[in-house]
Amino acid sequence: MVKAKGPIKFAASGIGAASYNDTRIMADALDLDIQIVNNFTGNEGEMSMMRGAVVGEVGSIDAFEQFVQNGNGFLGLALSGKPEALPGVPRVEKYVKDDRGKKLLALLQSLSELGRLTAGPPGIPANILGVERQAMVAVMKDPGFLADARKLRLPIDSLPGDVVEAKIKAALTQPPETVAALKRAAGG
Q: Which DSSP category does 89 fall into?
């Protein structure tokens, strides 16, 4: 992608969707010429890759697992997650050229690690928040819950509440150039 002549077409759901924003931020961080083709839902992006209409799509490992296992594509670049989760897949960090790109990538990785989270209103008393966080940790380790998740093929990869809180605070504290890049990504 770095050596491509002309825009590289990537599939996305639409402006404002995670697939769109993540692709724009990745392209900005890596200084890639990417053209986003919108309005793909479900597995339409994968079908478009098979037809050769687009060359890629940014999403979760889980979303592309069956596509790759069936031999219809490959994982080209790991944007986040633990390196051991995708052996042999190049890490995006290898291709970031400058500090600005590293900051954008760090934000993208942080948002990716957060995934879906549980939140409450501001001002929850510390003792109640502590109990809620302990309960969530207990559920995420519960053998019955984990067995049900495996049956449904739902990966469970949770972070403790204090780690999530720190990542959110870090994500919301960005230098002006990163905020400007995010505005460009969100603006289409």
A: S
Q: What is the pLDDT of residues 25-58, one digit of tens each?
A: 889 888 899 999 998 888 899 999 999 999 999 9
Q: How far apart are CA 58 and CA 64, in angstroms?
A: 9
Sheet arrangement for strand 56-57: 34-37, 8-11, 56-57
| Cβ partners under 8 Å of residue 170, min gap 6 | 110
Is the separation of the CB atoms in 175 and 103 below 8 Å? Answer: yes
Of 60, 168, 63, 56, nearest to 120 by C-alpha is 168
Residue 79 CA: distances (Å) to CA of 26, 48, 75, 127, 128: 8, 21, 11, 36, 35
Query: 177 near 100, Cβ under 8 Å?
Result: yes
* pTM (two decimals): 0.73
Long-range CB contacts (within 8 A, 24+) of 47-54: 48/11, 49/11, 49/73, 53/9, 54/9, 54/10, 54/11
